UniProtKB/TrEMBL annotation:
Activator of Hsp90 ATPase homologue 1/2-like C-terminal domain span: 26-173
Stated name of the protein: Uncharacterized protein YndB with AHSA1/START domain
A Pfam family matched in the record: AHSA1
InterPro entries per record: ASHA1/2-like_C, START-like_dom_sf
CDD domains documented for this protein: SRPBCC_CalC_Aha1-like (cd07814)
Family per record: Belongs to the AHA1 family.
Length: 176
């Protein structure tokens, strides 16, 4: 592990059934916010390691959508979307994340019929001495007790997944 990786290690907790991940990046807040909100940047880092991201649409406004596909090296494709609820540049993004089909309709993920249809995510960006601490908080929206329980059972997997995604973000920020 490099010094950069060690200082940027994920910190995670699971307060009140929400996934909370905090990560510090060696980049100013305006840049970190920009790479979260522009398609030409998102395609380079968003999603699981090894997946190729294609942005179908990005409309950054309350009620707007980020609709994308992810393709595995084997050619398997999944679709997802954000529906933006609140944007306070460069401090905060609030969006509902969901699996989607190619037309942007919300669907169940291919891996479970018990995963919640919608996850409300709040991402905050705080700068200190040219570095940005990002905190992501996510939890099910309008979910059944079974969906909440399934989501809680996925915390370790989601922490690993976001860890890889944020590693890609860290590498991308170092390049631009």
């Amino acid at each position: 592990m490099t010094e950069s990786q060690a200082t940027n290690a994920n910190q995670a907790n699971t307060e009140e059934g929400k996934l909370v991940i905090t990560r510090t990046f060696n980049a100013p807040r305006e840049l970190v916010f920009k790479v979260w909100t522009e398609s030409e940047h998102l395609k380079h880092w968003w999603g699981p390691i090894g997946m190729e991201l294609e942005v179908k649409k990005l409309d950054l406004r309350p009620g707007g959508i980020f609709h994308y596909s992810m393709t595995s090296p084997e050619g398997d494709q999944m679709w997802g979307k954000f529906i933006y609820q609140e944007i306070v540049a460069p401090e905060k993004l609030v969006f509902i994340n969901a699996f989607a089909d190619a037309e942007g309709n919300t669907i169940r993920p291919p891996f479970s019929s018990e995963f919640p249809l919608e996850i409300l995510n709040i991402v905050t960006f705080i700068e200190h001495d040219g570095r940005t601490t990002l905190t992501l908080q996510g939890g099910p929206q309008q979910a059944t007790p079974e969906e909440h329980a399934f989501y809680k059972g996925m915390f370790e997997s989601m922490q690993q997944g976001f860890g890889g995604t944020f590693d890609q973000l860290d590498e991308y920020l170092a390049k631009i």
